[in-house]
User: Fold these one by one.
Assistant:
Number 1:
Amino acid sequence: MKRHIAVVALSAATLGLVTPSVASAARPDRSPVRLTATPERIEVVGLPCLPSSLQVGMTNTGTADLYADMELTAEPPVTLDRQVLSSWLPARDPDFMVSTRVGVTVPRDAESGEYQVELTVDRQVLAVPVEVLPLPPKGAGDNLALGEQASASSTHGNFDVCGAVDGNKNSNDWDTLTGWNDATRGVFPDTHQIALAEPATISRVETYTLDSARYPAARYGLRDFDVQVRVDGAWQTVHEVRANVVGHVTSTFDAVTADAVRIVGLASNNGDYSRLVEVEVYSS
Ligand SMILES: [Ca+2]
């Protein structure tokens, strides 16, 4: 359910000072632009690969074409990747809407609590509450890769490199961008890399390649891959996985202090792409 907070602008029209022709064409006493934001409140956490976003829209509910400028502002430490949405809004029936996605982020050291994003057109304001959540624990037994900065040799346009560290390892959600898929069909190797927040002593990596009833690992999963860790700037292979046909592979190895982990895809079972649903890194 959407909730709209509209501050109605008063003008000469409300005082009856408007000529009949203007009044019949449009109602200048009230902005015909309706603002929308989905979802109506958002949560954000200060990790580089757990982005939040808001879908914002402007709808012309009036009977005259118009040009609208939406200003987007955020209360620090919240930042938005867009500050303005400008668009021509023709008067149409059904009402015409333009919308766009706005990325919402906070730095790692952001204090948790309630903040606010505001969308403004003319004197209408739509306030969207933003809750900054505490950072997830990253101690012994916690997944050190969750939400940390991921990068890859390439990423297919339909996917997001952060999908493999978003905390969702369910292959049934593959179509919702919870995984990473490289962009070089039939060409290997492909690499997916995760930079840890700080050097950590690690001894286990859990790799989830695509494996669902619709996309079984024996056909769509990674067949051959190396698990590597970065120690003092040099990559070391800690597990060579070969002829894999299952969705979940556990790699355990002698504890090592590393600041990054990567999966090097050498072959997939059908020879096209490297696919990862999730990669987890643990200290024990
Ligand atoms: Ca995922």
Note: The chain has two domains: 12-133, 150-282.
Number 2:
Amino acid sequence: MESKRLSKLPEKVIIPLKQHKGIPCVPMVKKGDSVVIGQKIGDCKDSHDSSVHSSVCGEVLSIEMAPHPEGNKVLSVIIKTTESDQTVGFSPKKNPSQKDLIELIKNSGIVEHYGVPTQSVLKPHGKNITTVLINATSSEWIGGKFSTPEEYGTQMLEALKLLMKAAGASKGAIVLRSDDTESIAAFSGIRFEGKQLEVAPLIGSRKIGYYFKDQESNIVVVSQKRIYGKRILNFFTYNVTGRKVPAGCTPADVGVAICGVKSAKALYDAVYEGKPYYETVILLDGLPNCPSLVMVRIGTPFKDVIEAYGGYPSESGKLIANGMRTGVAQYTDEVPVTKTTTRISFQKPEDVSKDEVIACIHCAACVDVCPVELLPNKIAALADQGRFDECRQVHIENCIECGKCAVVCPSKIHILQLIRYAKDAIELAYEDTPAKESSNIKLGCACGGE
Ligand code: SF4
Ligand code: SF4
């Protein structure tokens, strides 16, 4: 599936100075400044943050708080665009060292689609990464920035080697989706390390942890079923490597770093072309007359993407960023595409749920569908009452945010929103404190867990 570049340049771009989980960047430009493509406009001080670059040529109109697709307002650089392809001098890196690569990832503004800066995934504090996985199971990203399947395959393998070097890892795998024949064909034809590459299916006990042992190469390409959900990483790690991630831990705790195709490609471009991360590929659904994949400059308002493809199919309805099931409904189409935007969806008025929320009827439908065997009804009720410590006791952190519980709930309870709300509160209050040491008092919960 190939992407189409958005044909018309937007009149202005809105570039948030925070497009990653971490501290916002400090603006490096001021009102009236001229900027060119690839120019760094937001600098980060901490090694676990990520720089921001201009995606267009133009003039800085203002630096102000502007709507962000996650629902809040974020300090953003607003640039009036001019029709020009002028860029900063891109300088490719020859044989970069591990330290060079980590610095390059940070300075090129490369982040994972779930917002964590890629250098933090590869070099997490106090953890040793031994295996890097590229999760290529979302085939909508194939063709994103690649003109042919062969280019996709060869660049991904090169990118994996770079990611492994940056992490200091000895093993790496590219994980494709087993029904994505296009990607499997792209990799199957490649000659790698003197041999024709084969894509091995991950079935039964043929976990990659064992599979690596049979291979001369420390790099393999495998395929597995797609696992849905935004926070699938622990699940994914186990499926692919056979390493179980304990409750409350992350893949890094078992030595695994997982990167996406977008960030892998961004690193390839940063090393071989010297380009920072200033454009991305997004999927469009629910809009007539549009290709499903579009390459967009970061900062392009949603409305410009929609107008470029004939506008809205009807006057009302709902605009959603990052998927119908787990994404965020937008109150304005003046929000920009950011590094973490993967999809823009338009829900028709007749499809928008208008059901009133009623009390839980204890049908257990949510329990039946939960892929990680949680009690979504119980967690949602505790979250609703602010009993966050008890949410931890019933392992809220294991929720992969697939949204299945909310879809099946006959009472239309906003289970996923409640879970996310509690997770955010817990993250803020506890940071790295282990679950057993926490207390409701620390969170200010008046009930004390009763
Ligand atoms: S609690 Fe809900 S959102 Fe979380 S993993 Fe279970 S079904 Fe998915
Ligand atoms: S599906 Fe909804 S109504 Fe049924 S138990 Fe879960 S939360 Fe309650």
Note: Residues 360-366, 376-377, 408-411, 413, 415 surround iron/sulfur cluster (ligand 2) (CB under 6 Å).
